[in-house]
Amino acid sequence: MNKHKQWIFAVMTLALAAAPFAGELIERNGTIHASPYHDPSVVKDTAVPAEESLPAFGTTLLKVGSSGQDVYELQGRLKHLGYYGGKIDSQFGPKTKNAVTWFQWKFGMKVDGVVGAKTKLKLYNATKAWKPTEPPTSTAGKKNTTNTTNTAANTKNTNTAELSSGNTMGLSENDLKIMANAVYGEARGEPFEGQVAVAAVILNRVKSPSFPNTPSGVIFQPGAFTAVADGQIYLEPNEQARKAVQQALNGWDPSGGCLYYFNPKTATSKWIWTRPQVKTIGEHIFCM
Q1: Which range in 1-5, 127-131, 164-168, 180-184 is most confidently predicted, on average pLDDT?
Q2: Is the pLDDT reported for residue 129 higher than 70?
Q3: Residue 103: is it exposed, middle or buried by C-beta count within 10 angstroms (0-12/13-18/19+)?
Q4: What's the rounded mean pLDDT across residues 201-207?
Q5: Integer Cα distance of 23 and 153 in angstroms
């Protein structure tokens, strides 16, 4: 009897020791099979290696005068989209502000040239493919990640194709587009010659050492254009405004080389009346 108990105890001990490896017994077609044992408390590690981390904006508000890594990233991302054409120098200057305002307008945001949390998030989401070592693109809309942005780029390319054909100054598509916006916002009620003259004034300023050297810089220079101050710069230009820019790019300057113009009925600046007047076209007086 003692031997019998010892045998039972030995069998139970072996059974308990082999349980973790025995698996589950499954009856199929009258035959018992052993399937591998699975412990539900054990989770297999199938984690995928994380993607290489990219620089991310900090929480600092960025504006003219800011500098550092966040500005470097800001300029890189804007250049990636084609809104910034200057040197990536980590210094938030007028060119960077112009690029920011252009980006904010294109994405339907408040246009103030200040990069806060909302602008950072919008820019980050629009440039997830950007890397510091990636060669920058040269035109806005060239690198798109969705069908929607591709469609928008195609529309923009169609609108600026004719403008680009006469572009001998090496201006970007953004510059040509903002020029058409400025002509439409400033002179859409003027005769065609007057609209070409407004576009010519912008180009004359670009060529002058006394003004910024890009159309965007000229147009967004503080206090320079009424359309910027009252928001009409953001109206969609019509075909006539685009053609006026094209004519100016082709060399037609009805203003005779002027750097200024004003409407005598609405002008509030006494200084503008001191400028040598050259001619009047429509409601505008063009002067040097």
Answers
A1: 180-184
A2: yes
A3: buried
A4: 94
A5: 60
Pick the closest to residue 192 from 228, 158, 242 (CA basis).
242
Residue at token pair 């044992």: 37
Q: 69 near 79, Cβ under 8 Å?
A: no
Among 4-8, 49-53, 65-69, the minimum mean pLDDT is found in 49-53
Q: Would you state the structure tokens that stand for residue 135, as one six-digit string?
A: 């060669």
> Pairing state of beta strands 277-281 and 24-28?
unpaired
Q: By CB neighbour count within 10 A (0-12 exposed, 13-18 middle, 19+ buried), where does 244 fall?
A: buried
Residue 141 falls in which region: left (phi positive, over 0), alpha (psi -120 to 50) or beta: left
Give the pLDDT score at 245: 93
Helix 173-187 and helix 239-249: axis angle, to 10°?
120
State the alpha helices, DSSP H only, in the chain. Answer: 2-22, 69-81, 94-106, 117-126, 147-165, 173-187, 192-207, 215-219, 226-230, 239-249
Do 271 and 191 contact (CB within 8 A), yes or no?
no
**Where is mean pLDDT largest: 19-28, 45-54, 116-125?**
116-125
DSSP string, 85-116: -S---SB--HHHHHHHHHHHHHTT---SS-B-
